Amino acid sequence: MVLKTIRTATDRWSQKDSEFSSMFEPYTGDEVIALDCEMTSLDTQKAELVSIAAVKIKGNQVLTSDKLDIKLQKPENLTGESIKVHRIRGVDLLGGEVLGDALQQLLEFIDNRPIMGYNIAYDITVLNRFIRPRFGFSLPNKTIELSQCYMAQLQRATPDIEPDLKFETIAKKLDVPMVGQRHTALGDAITTALMYVRLLKDAVPT
């Protein structure tokens, strides 16, 4: 945590005159960005980005019309095993975005808003592996882990129950329908956003 604080302060100084300087300003609004990425590996040091999606949440409303949905150019390590998970084939990525352009769009869309997601630390770690060399900083945004929000609320209601934190289980417990096919970036981002809003409304899992 101390190292992250020092790094963010250093990044803030280095970016003070850049187009991304606003990302380091304190956020005072009521919007959160639900983010999901599909990748080629579970290893954060080897994973390549296949698709990136984000949707805005304003207050307790999911703004499905205000979203980002980007498929990237085919990475070299797109394998049959990863295709089984996200079902994105090489042919599906024809005409995909160049990675640098996609990250630029993502940074502009997020700005300094908090970022929320399921297993969000994994997504942020991989994104920063590509953002820092290109832009000179790592994402400084506050992050919100959906599963931790769910667990905290469940344990307040039923402290003796060990929670099942699988994505599908949380969605079912919160009575949130899966949007699109599981392991598609946009579908998972919107589903995650809907679950988060349910938790904001103090929906107690049953």
From TrEMBL:
CDD domains, sorted: DEDDh
Any one GO molecular function term: exonuclease activity
Sorted UniProt keywords: Exonuclease, Hydrolase, Nuclease
Domain Exonuclease intervals: 31-205
SUPFAM superfamilies (alphabetical): Ribonuclease H-like
InterPro entries membership: Ribonucl_H, RNaseH-like_sf, RNaseH_sf
Pfam families documented for this protein: RNase_T
The protein, known as: 3'-5' exonuclease
Organism for this UniProt entry: Marinospirillum insulare
